[in-house]
Design a protein that fits this description.
heterodimer, A: about 290 residues, alpha/beta, Rossmann fold, four-stranded antiparallel beta sheet, 8 helices, about 35% helix, B: about 300 residues, mainly alpha, MetI-like fold, 2 domains, two-stranded antiparallel sheet, 15 helices, flat
């Protein structure tokens, strides 16, 4: 536990000149092109964008599941060339092992590392206690609600003490109430563990509420359209979502994504609805423009 | 279900004797139960298991009806396209059953058949499951083995009898070989199917928790395929019996299939039915065994 609760922030993600394409019968298809992002140690960064823009592709490349066509991905200066326990991942579909109990799921990473049974059982119990799941340690995942499953998913990813936590629309399948609670839990854990987080979502409120910084991506082929710092103070309260500062950020991000979503629909819809929402960025970040 | 001591509520003995209308009417009969703790517990147990009790009652009734129809058809020697003239009556079969269970020859037939099933089926499982897992994981093995398997698979085990007699030095070995073949392909095919359905996201989840190839195989692919492996084992067990009986009838000495065929040659009609029923009961028992093993090995599924 001392390892996972280290005080020095860690996990500096650097993605440079990144592009990713795959082959199809009509030739290569660009999924993501010319992208640079970085996450400072201990920072919470979100990526938002219209559906199909390649935000998950980018996340999977950081996880090491996909090889960039050009460019490099590094974490703390080390090049990423495959999945590793250093980069914990949380999936939208929970992806808990159905044949393992809650505790065995959490223990999995420690088991892979060769930690003796009694030791990893203790570690898993402590972590489950933090997430309020100690009563369910012997349950199989099927018996749990969506929110509980995802808490197990997060705890499992954190159990090995990763430098970076990657989340791919983790709360997308949850109802609004559970979502809010999960956001709180995630924030608490992140602040306690002082690791960096890269969070992919299509929910703008969620991105603003959780993040220090938000990247907004363009429609396919995806690239970074804007980078928006979120200057809201921490700890963040639910009530902040009604503040004028929050709403201004929301409005700005919303119009950026709207523009891209319309583009993605291939001009089926004319830009009548877009009037008054065009924002010229010219390399500035959105917060400066508003 | 968990406390058999409480199970014996008066109405619950009904499945053994009562007819169908009784089972349907039962719920209204029990509602004015006394509020004593035993009474309420029993009532609650009854409510929770109502569906299962109903199914048991209907099942027993239908078996009894089957016996009754059989009895009537044979007593009146019905001839209506099908001839029941020489078919033994249930009571005659029961008589030959009581005689047979004291006959060491009959028991030996059964023991020998079970031994052949055990060896043939176990070999098929020991070869089929690992082969399926490896074929599912390594493309090259799949590409090499699959075409051969696909050509051999449609050949019924019975068609292997002459070949088996040529291949193996003893009769016993060739019968076991045929039993093996019968169960091998269902086991292999279902294991392969299970492997092809493993959720790739689970594999990725394991990878980013630090799992390497061998661990992924043991911790993800194998348990994820288990439900289909057990489907394969259940189907394989059924086909194993089919193949065994056919092989015993053709080339056997001893075995329950041989017993049944011999009974026909010796004009002992009651023994034919006895042999058939014995085969049915053994087949049912062995598939129940596999299902039980499945519950033991996959506790995460049996809680459903």
């Amino acid at each position: 536990m001392s390892e996972t609760l280290a005080s020095e922030p860690k996990g500096h993600i650097e993605v440079t000149n990144f592009s990713l394409s795959y082959d199809s019968i009509e030739g290569p298809v660009q999924a993501v092109t010319d992208t640079q992002i970085h996450v400072n140690p201990g920072e919470f960064v979100s990526i938002v964008g219209p559906s199909g823009c390649g935000k998950s592709t980018l996340l999977n490349a950081v996880a090491g599941f996909l090889k960039p066509t050009t460019g490099i991905v590094t974490v703390d200066g080390e090049r990423v060339n495959g999945p590793s326990a250093e980069r914990g991942m949380v999936f939208q579909q929970y992806s808990l092992f159905p044949w393992k109990t809650v505790r065995e799921n959490v223990e999995f990473g420690l088991k892979m590392r060769g930690m003796p049974r009694s030791q990893r059982e203790r570690a898993a119990r402590t972590l489950l206690g933090l997430a309020g799941l100690e009563a369910f340690e012997k349950h199989y995942p099927e018996k749990l609600s969506g929110g509980m499953k995802q808490r197990v998913g997060i705890v499992r990813a954190l159990a090995t003490g990763p430098k970076v936590l990657l989340l791919d629309e983790p709360f997308g399948a949850l109802d609004a109430q559970t979502r809010v609670i999960m956001q709180q839990i995630l924030t608490n854990m992140w602040q306690r563990l002082k690791i960096s987080v890269l969070f992919v979502t299509h929910d703008i409120d969620e991105a603003i509420f959780l993040s220090d910084r938000v990247y907004c991506m363009t429609a396919r082929p995806g690239s970074i359209k804007a980078e928006i710092p979120i200057p809201l103070e921490r700890p963040r309260q639910q009530s902040m979502m009604m503040s004028s500062e929050f709403l201004a950020l929301r409005r700005g991000l919303m119009s950026l994504i709207r523009e891209e979503s319309l583009k993605a629909m291939g001009g089926e819809i004319n830009d009548m609805g877009m009037q008054g929402l065009n924002i010229e960025l010219h390399g500035h970040s959105l917060a400066d423009v508003i | 279900m968990s406390s058999p001591a409480l199970v014996r509520h008066p109405e619950d003995n009904m499945p053994a004797t009562a007819a169908l209308p009784e089972a349907v009417r039962a719920p209204t009969v029990t509602s004015p139960a006394t509020p004593s703790s035993f009474g309420t517990l029993a009532l609650r147990w009854y409510r929770l298991n109502q569906g299962r009790l109903r199914a048991t009652a209907i099942g027993v009734t239908s078996l009894l009806a089957f016996l009754l129809v059989w009895h009537l058809l044979t007593t009146y020697r019905v001839v209506f396209f099908v001839r029941f003239v020489n078919v033994p009556a249930p009571l005659a079969v029961y008589a030959s059953f009581t005689k047979a269970i004291h006959d060491p020859h009959f028991l030996m037939h059964i023991v020998l058949s079970c031994r052949r099933i055990f060896i043939g089926f176990s070999l098929a499982a020991v070869v089929g499951v690992p082969l399926g897992l490896i074929m599912g994981r390594f493309k090259l093995v799949h590409e090499v083995v699959f075409p051969v398997a696909e050509v051999l698979r449609p050949i019924p085990a019975i068609a292997w009898v002459p070949m088996a007699i040529m291949l193996w030095p003893t009769n016993e070995q060739s019968i076991v070989f045929i039993t093996f073949l019968g169960s091998f392909f269902p086991i292999l095919v279902n294991t392969l199917h299970g492997m092809s359905l493993v959720d790739p996201v689970l594999v990725r989840a394991a990878q980013c928790l630090g799992a390497r190839e061998r661990s992924i195989f043991r911790e993800v692919y194998f348990p994820a395929s288990l439900p289909h492996i057990f489907t394969g084992l259940t189907v394989g067990m059924g086909v194993a019996w089919v193949s065994l009986i056919a092989a015993e009838m053709i080339s056997g000495q001893y075995g329950i299939g041989y017993f049944t065929w011999e009974a026909y040659s010796l004009v002992q009609y009651a023994d034919i039915a006895l042999g058939m029923i014995a085969i049915g009961v053994l087949g049912l028992g062995s598939s129940l065994l596999i299902r039980g093993a499945g519950h033991l090995v996959m506790p995460w599924r049996s809680t459903r």
